[in-house]
Amino acid sequence: MLIPVPEPTPEALRAAVERIVPSRVPALTQHLFEATTNAQQTQSLAPLRAFVHS
């Protein structure tokens, strides 16, 4: 089954993961939490950009 490439937003990425491999949603959520925390601590958007691209 082919699906379109999701938009590079957390919501779109989560929706794609839920559709393809629902069991990976907790890992995705944890990764997003870590990226958000790191972005706040470093006062940089780089961790969030890295999350979206991974």
Report on this model:
- α1 (10-20) runs antiparallel to α2 (25-42).
- The chain is elongated and about 40 Å long.
- The model has no long low-confidence stretch (mean pLDDT 91).
- It is built from 3 helices and no strands.
- The protein has helices spanning 10-20, 25-42, 46-53.
- It is mainly α and 54 residues long.
- The chain starts with 9 loop residues before the first helix and ends with a helix.
Summarize the structure.
By secondary structure, the protein is an all-alpha fold. It has helices at 10-20, 25-42, 46-53.
Give structural attributes:
69% helix; 54 residues; mainly alpha; elongated
Estimate percent helicity: 55-70%
Q: Return residue spans where pLDDT drops below 50 for at least 5 consecutive residues.
A: none
Q: What is the number of helices?
A: 3
The count of β-strands is 0
Decide which structural class fits the backbone: mainly alpha
Order of helices and strands: HHH
- Please, what is the average pLDDT? 91
The amount of beta strand, in percent, is: under 5%
| Main beta-sheet annotation | none
Shape: elongated
| Rg from alpha-carbon coordinates | 12 Å
Question: Whole-Å distance between the termini?
Answer: 21 Å
